[in-house]
Automatic annotation (TrEMBL), chains A, B:
Name assigned to this protein: Asparaginase
InterPro entries: Asparaginase_II (IPR010349), Beta-lactam/transpept-like (IPR012338)
TM regions (residue ranges): none
Pfam hit, one: Asparaginase_II
Length: 327, 327
């Protein structure tokens, strides 16, 4: 999928699988094995957020598009994220201690340096998944369910599983525990792409699940800075596509994309889990689909990105393989 | 070489190549393609340091085993490293501005947080390669050569190339520019393992190059904390082997090992460049060779390491593949 060149040598190579799927669930294009079973990790947060909307919880608690974007986010822990998630917690009458995601040092430099300078440790609200967890807490409150909302048997996770199986069109063969302690359900790459195509075509349908999916896509593309953060691939590439496409990264080399204008879903998994390769590969596929400009500065940051060393000298390049470009 | 499991699923997989070579240059054991051409990156710093000793520069400037360990190091930028490299610069009558490695934020938490709290940016002495560059500056001063010591035509780099080709037993097919701006010469994985076997058997020979190699190995195993730093694989695994083996990591998934008691050299390259896999794989090979205890806590940190999430829950494991263990 992606090669790393230095001087005249191919220094490293990332293999992987990718699927482009239409709204009927059919594979339009694939690389590698579309039926490989993966954990989508954070790439499926919009699926995990569906019950928040379909249950009526989002309406009851007056959640805006900003809240919904944060529910789908792997954020940087910058003030724009933690202020909003903190206010959301207040609104629910909950505190940081009600989260079950664990603390994480923010990736945002200002927030990170601020904590270090204050000799403070991060809170759970800084966790990149705190928006998803605020969504879980909201749904749990709406359902009147217990506090251990990441337990596999908890109604919140069972609702997430139902939404996951409905949109992927497959029974999940199992789950792993994610970095944020929530269950992450396995599916095939084809299943994940099918779920993304469900979101891509949602605005054409009027059923409750589709209306919720359309709202979540709208929230993601409206607030790209809330879905990830400044300097991050999801934010920068969504901005470069001017609201035409929603994309979401996941740990261990997963990336998903929702392309409403073509009613297509995209899912990819780098076999070795490398983010540099998932970012380069999703950019290459979006360029191929004609929805991302190859010459946009944001695209150039992830696809055909120069490798700069500590004196700013260009020593190599990270680029899609010829298979991915031409195949 | 290494697999990453989460729940019941193989989530990610790292392919790679590895070679164990004896002191005659013959392959004792290999995985993948031993003739694959790689950049050794920092794994060959002890080779780059050979001319520092063979030229007489180390003797002339009174370098101790600490200096030589730092010349072979990819260090954390902790005070134990930067204090010593800073004093070395002083001794040469040079300043931080004479380095050509570029600045780098230290990986050492105390040093990193100290800079952030002081609103300071890192210097070149913080660069993980600053010991190697202090060695280059020393050799350059000894040779009376010019200040641009990372240029490919500079006598320092030509001396490094000669040592590299002598110990690998191969003409280098080319070079790339490393993260620290020094040329990094390409060779086969077999060539790198052969160079490591040259170091492993050096104390049996009395030629100048071999005596220099033996001194460098002695320096590395005597000062494991200078070769990397607290919490790092090279330091922790060398300590676990009680001075019996010298090991060195390199960027993009390279690892090399020198096993004097068996006169063996080891070199491995993870195809995708992942450090988590090169660390796990070198530990597995050292266990196989009988020089590293599989049950030592340091071994367990890199081989069969549990993946802990942000609440400290074990969610998976990073382990060698059955091919690597049994093959």
């Amino acid at each position: 999928m992606t090669e790393v060149r230095r001087g005249s040598l191919l220094e490293s190579l990332h293999l992987g699988h990718a699927v482009v799927c239409d709204d009927t669930g059919q594979i339009v294009r694939s690389w590698g094995d579309p039926e490989t079973v993966i954990y989508p990790r954070s790439s499926c947060k919009m699926v995990q957020a569906l019950p928040l909307v379909t249950s009526g919880a989002a309406g009851k608690y007056g959640l805006t598009s900003e809240h919904l974007a944060l529910a789908c986010a792997s954020h940087n822990g910058a003030a724009i994220h933690t202020d909003r998630v903190g206010a959301w917690l207040d609104q629910l009458g909950k505190t940081d201690g009600d989260f079950r995601c664990g603390p994480q040092m923010p990736a945002d430099e200002e927030a990170c340096h601020g904590l270090i300078r204050a000799y403070e440790t991060p809170c759970q609200v800084h966790n990149n998944c705190s928006g998803k967890h605020a969504g879980f807490l909201t749904l749990s409150a709406h359902m009147g369910a217990g506090p251990e909302y990441v337990d596999i048997d908890h109604p919140v996770q069972q609702a997430a599983l139902n939404a996951f199986e409905e949109t992927t069109g497959l029974s999940s063969p199992g789950y792993g525990i994610d970095g944020c302690s929530a269950p992450n359900f396995a599916t095939t790459l084809h299943g994940l792409a099918r779920a993304m195509a469900f979101f891509a075509s949602a605005r054409d349908r009027s059923d409750r699940q589709s209306r919720a999916a359309a709202r979540l896509v709208e929230a993601m593309v409206r607030h790209p800075e809330l879905v990830a953060g400044e300097g991050r691939a999801c934010t920068e590439l969504m901005r470069a596509m001017n609201g035409r496409v929603a994309i979401k990264t996941g740990a261990e080399g997963v990336f998903a994309a929702i392309v409403p204008e073509m009613k297509l879903g995209v899912a990819l998994k780098i076999r070795d889990g490398a983010t540099r390769a998932s970012e380069c590969s999703i950019a290459a596929i979006l360029v191929r689909l004609g929805v991302l400009d190859a010459d946009h500065p944001a695209t150039r940051k992830y696809m055909n990105a120069p490798i700069l060393n500590r004196r700013g000298i260009e020593t190599g390049i990270i680029k899609p393989t010829s298979d991915l470009i031409a195949g």
